[in-house]
Amino acid sequence: MAKLTKVDVLHVAKLAKLDISEKEINKYTEQLAPVINYFSELSEIDTNDVEPTSQTTGLENVFRQDVIKGENCLNQDEAVAGSEKTYNGYFKVKAILSERTDK
Amino acid sequence: METPLTIKETRKGLLDKKFSAVELVDKYLERIDEFKGLNAFLTISDEVAYKEAKEVDKLVETGISKDQYPLLGSVIAHKDLFMTKGIRTTASSKVLESFIPEYSATVVERDKKAGAIMIGKTNCDAWAHGASGENSDFGPTLNPWNKEYVPGGSSSGSATAVASGMSLIASGTDTGGSIRQPANFCGVTGLKPTYGAVSRYGVIAMASSLDSIGCFGHTVSDVETIFDVTKGEDGFDSTVKNANDQKPKDKLKIGIPKEYFLGGLDREVEESVLEVVKVFRSKGVKIVDVTLPNTKYAISVYYIVQPAEVSSNLGRYDGIRYGNSRDSFGAEAKRRIMLGTYVLSAGYYDAYYLKAQKVRSKMIGDFDKVFEKVDALIAPVSPTAAFKLGEKASDPLKMYLADIYTASANLVGIPGLAVPSGFNQSGLPLGFQILGPRFSENTLFALGNMYQEITSYQPKLAFK
């Protein structure tokens, strides 16, 4: 198994949208490397004919009627109540597109 | 007036008019104030508590039948992972520092409908990441029996609140031991139900294939009452299944898994668990040695599967619709997000995540095989009694290893009941856990009740 490097930490931080400082990169590399290293014990187990388990309920395809129950829904005011940055019942977010400059 | 230590005595005292629910709330709030240094609560919901208490007092006036309101007047504290409509819910993280939910968790609603009175929200490791309570963004909770020690985690405030009489009962979540271990460190009874027995709706998700919603109380009988109130389908969490209420067998057989008594287990903890085994044997319970060969891999499997699911669940916190931005995550949350992202990332998925899921299957196979032979298992909850604040805080791997005896139950999806069994020489609580097959809660309760009856168990508060 691989050894965790600073490059890996920087890569996963980016994937997870975490802004971390240079100091944090060093700290997390130092702290996570032994954890990853610990996992190498799993390679000694033979799992050739074993199916993976993702959940333990044994349930499959739990269905319900496709009907809306009003009392179970948040109204628009309630839905945006968690943010102060709203406009006309919408969330206000930063623009992610800019105007074309090549026209 | 002394507050009663069980749900039954509370209910009886109210119905006999020995005290009113409002007086009970007065008393619990006094104790919360007296022991606020333990940092068990993040929010105190005194207004709601008095409102609910008045409703309880009105019910007592009008009269109720004996099957109604099983939690009548029981003061409850909810771990701050449970959404409570109109009351701040933080997951002990700065990300949700001022988040006020628009709806309540199923469990919160069901407890309330059963007559419970909500007194406040308890501190925990942020996002339930931890085994000591030290990962809270609002400071650690202290162990009520000795303030230099941790109360366990992640449901640190809930266990501390019950142990010190700041609340009669409390809710908690157990993803890798987060109810059983703090119950054990604080000397109270804690239940981690079967995965899928109690709805996760409205409970802030940690690792969705492992999260179990449970509770704390002073006695096995109390956690049984709370479980009966909270369990079952709610139409919101499709992993929940109504179990048939199986009666426990007359003649029970308990297995002792040898892998739980190997190196690293504290001598006093081991002796205490073996003493418990003797108690059961004296009552004619058959005891046999069993083996769970893949136990030693539980930590590796757990610390792959759990952070993977954590990284996915915490992906939703973007600071746009509610809460603060991702910069507000504390160090442990960041560690787990990165660990989880790493084991899921291209090139590593097969070696870590898929491999862990396969070993998880092998662990399930181990338990299935053992439960063909025995009805339940008895084991230690943690390798040691409570450890000192700061002792493991700087070494994540050391902290993770504290979950060795609890994580398996979550990976396998089975229930576990943590029961106190006395104190060690330093005056810190000791205890054991009973594990059983999926949906065998009634067997665990029967055994737990049997133990507390034989030993004439009397609940004890810290700071009596």
Summarize the structure.
The complex is a heterodimer of chains A (103) and B (464). By secondary structure, chain A is mainly alpha-helical. Chain A has helices spanning 6-15, 22-38, 76-79; strands spanning 86-87, 90-91.
What does this structure look like?
The complex is a heterodimer of chains A (103) and B (464). Helix content of chain A is 30%, strand content 4%. Chain A has 103 residues and is mainly α. Chain A has a domain at 6-42. Chain A has a two-stranded antiparallel ribbon with strand order 1-2. In chain A, helix 1 packs across helix 2. Chain A is flat, with a radius of gyration of 24 Å. Chain B has one domain (7-295, 361-454): Amidase signature (AS) enzymes (Alpha-Beta Complex). Chain B is built from 14 helices and eleven strands. Chain B has helices at residues 7-15, 21-34, 46-62, 106-113, 156-163, 180-186, 220-230, 267-282, 298-313, 331-344, 350-373, 396-400, 407-412, 441-454; strands at residues 41-44, 75-79, 117-122, 169-174, 189-192, 212-217, 253-257, 286-290, 376-379, 416-423, 429-435. In chain B, a hairpin with a 5-residue loop joins strand 10 (416-423) and strand 11. The model of chain B has no long low-confidence stretch (mean pLDDT 96). At the A-B interface, helix 1 and helix 2 of A face helix 9, helix 10, helix 11 and helix 12 of B.
Q: Give the CA-based shape of chain B.
A: globular
Which strand order does the major sheet of chain A show? Answer: 1-2
- Assembly classification: heterodimer
Instruction: Quote the distance from N terminus to C terminus of chain A.
Output: 51 Å
Instruction: Count all strands of chain A and give the number.
Output: 2
Please render the helix and strand layout as text.
The complex is a heterodimer of chains A (103) and B (464).
Chain A: H1 6-15, H2 22-38, H3 76-79, E1 86-87, E2 90-91
Helix pairs in contact in A: 1-2
Chain B: H1 7-15, H2 21-34, E1 41-44, H3 46-62, E2 75-79, H4 106-113, E3 117-122, H5 156-163, E4 169-174, H6 180-186, E5 189-192, E6 212-217, H7 220-230, E7 253-257, H8 267-282, E8 286-290, H9 298-313, H10 331-344, H11 350-373, E9 376-379, H12 396-400, H13 407-412, E10 416-423, E11 429-435, H14 441-454
